[in-house]
Amino acid sequence: MIPLKTHHQPSSSFFFSSISKPNTLHTISLQPHFLSLPQSPPLKFPLKFKPLPFSPSLPLQRVSKIELSICSNDEEFQDLSPKGEVYQKTLQLVECSMFAALTGLVYFLSNSLAIENYFSCFFSLPIVISSMRWGVDAGRKTLVATTILLFVLSGPVKALTYLLKHGIVGFTMGTLWRLETSWSLSIFLCTIVRSIGAVGFVLISSFLIRENILALITINIHASLTFVLTASGVNFIPSMNFIYTLFGILVLLNSGCFMFLLHMLYSVFLTRMGMKASLKLPRWLEKAI
């Protein structure tokens, strides 16, 4: 047998000795460089920053240069002062609705209590006031609102009666007064409108009761006129065309007198309300007032 021989290696002792006794200088040298930061000097206040020049190529800007625009368009700004457009439109709508409600209520109660003849001269006044204060558009709104309200409260017959006898007349008068037309033209046009409304009311009533009221009126006029002429000793029998012409003249005279009195009443009423500057009155009435 060949005996084994162990050879002593001096490097192994050195290796184990290096592990058991690490070198401090070697350990310090193995530390990373970012852990050993140099000590910076203390900051001194106040700090002064120089503003960077603006460049459109830069994606970011300073916060001090950013401006918030709440409304970019001028149309989005609304003037809510008493003289502003929004306030005036709201006030116009409120007044028109109040006038329509008041007129509808008074007309409904007067018809229910059979006192329409005592208040008929005031049914057109709210439409005239609305037209004088806010323009023709406001008068039309009051007319439409009142008619719809009466249609709901009293039915289509009462609403149509108001429209023919009072509503269109008030709207015509308010429009002519708003345009500052003369009294002669205003009375003439309102008389025609009133006459057409009266004839239309008769025709609608005839259709509803299934009876020709217009024929009954003309026949009664013909009989009364024939009796008067016969009693006077005049041998003349009027024709039906003459009766129709006489009926039209009587309707125009009735409507003309009514509109003349209505013009005087409304002129005095609006003058007392402080709207004299908006009226174009004749000289004799202006001096009397």
UniProtKB/TrEMBL annotation:
This protein's record includes keyword Transmembrane helix: yes
Lineage, top ranks: Eukaryota, Viridiplantae, Streptophyta, Embryophyta, Tracheophyta
InterPro entries cross-referenced by the UniProt entry: DUF2232
Keyword Transmembrane helix among UniProt keywords: yes
Transmembrane regions: 115-136, 143-163, 183-204, 213-237, 243-266
Gene that encodes the chain: LOC101513327
Keyword terms of this UniProt record: Membrane, Transmembrane, Transmembrane helix
Listed name of the protein: Uncharacterized protein LOC101504306
Organism: Cicer arietinum
Superkingdom: Eukaryota
